[in-house]
Design brief:
By secondary structure, the chain is α+β, with helices and mostly antiparallel strands. A 4-stranded mixed β-sheet has the order 6-9-10-11, with helices on both faces. A 3-stranded antiparallel β-sheet has the order 1-2-3, with helices on one face. It has helices spanning about 5-25, 65-95, 100-105, 110-115, 125-135, 160-170, 215-230, 250-260; strands at about 35-40, 40-50, 55-60, 150, 155, 175, 180-185, 185-190, 195, 205-210, 240-245. A hairpin with a 3-residue loop joins strand 7 and strand 8.
């Protein structure tokens, strides 16, 4: 399952946070355990002390804090035991599990052997080749617009798009520039970049909005984002958004962080 390892890592982080909390709370706790009973409709709290003998002491109302501490201690110990067990399991699973392990078995074969075999999953390189081979016609450039070219030799509309395209190219990320898609209820739009993401084989779209301090431009950009969402293309999932204004330019470090988070 693509994306599972990332989820396992996130779950491990969550459990580590919980472990720190309960470990800290269990550092200075009262000795013994708590029993809770009920007599004539009244709740009774009993302190079972650990002193060789099973000494029982009723906890009075004015000492209810002790009952709370003992109850919390019992709960925290259960959580601690569970979390320790789960962390051990997750550590082993994360160490052994690789999302591409099935397709890797095929890729590791000699080409002559590959020719004799039908893989149970379409190998990534084959998927990518098919995706790249699908022809498309991008959006035309208006006359007298600046000619800006990427390292790949493609013409783009802005220096920021060139920066994005060159970053993809440098990282070996295949992309399509302004490949048209049809959005229900609107028609054809041209996402700035379309990328086939390896980890889950999903087609994702990267839109760069570069004039967000221009009210008309910003309004148009928001409408377009809402159109994507209406067509179940959600920001942070299959839609990546980057922004810019006259005072805040696109940052290559931010691009790298977004690529790490959403693409790699």
């Amino acid at each position: 399952m693509y994306g599972l390892k990332e989820l396992l890592i996130e779950e491990e982080k969550r459990l580590q946070t919980i472990k720190k909390i309960v470990d800290a709370r269990l550092e200075n706790v009262p000795q013994g355990t708590l029993r809770i009973g009920e007599v004539n409709g009244r709740v009774q709290y009993i302190h079972c002390e650990d002193k060789g003998e099973n000494k029982l002491t009723y906890i009075k109302k004015e000492n209810i804090t002790l009952a709370k501490q003992l109850a919390q201690k019992a709960y925290d110990r259960k959580i601690q035991k569970l979390v320790d067990r789960r962390l051990k399991q997750l550590k082993m699973l994360c160490k052994e599990y690789e999302e591409s392990e099935i397709s890797d078995k095929y890729e590791q074969l000699h080409p002559n052997r590959k020719a004799l075999i039908s893989a149970v999953e379409t190998p990534w390189e084959q998927n990518l080749r098919v995706w790249k081979s699908i022809p498309y016609t991008g959006k035309e450039f208006e006359p007298n617009t600046p000619e800006i070219y990427t390292k790949k030799g493609e013409r783009v509309r802005s220096k920021s798009e060139k920066l994005l395209a060159d970053t993809f190219y440098g990282l070996g990320i295949e992309y399509k520039y302004e490949c048209p898609i049809k959005l229900k209820g609107y028609g054809v739009v041209y996402p700035d970049f379309t990328i086939l993401r390896k980890r889950d084989r999903k087609e994702i779209y990267w839109e760069h909005d570069g004039k967000m301090d221009d009210p008309k431009y910003a309004e148009k950009a928001i409408r377009k984002i809402n159109l994507y969402i209406a067509n179940k293309i959600y920001p942070g999932d299959t839609l990546i958004l980057s922004y810019e204004s006259s005072g805040v330019v696109l940052n290559d470090r931010i691009i790298a962080q977004m690529i790490e988070k959403y693409i790699l």
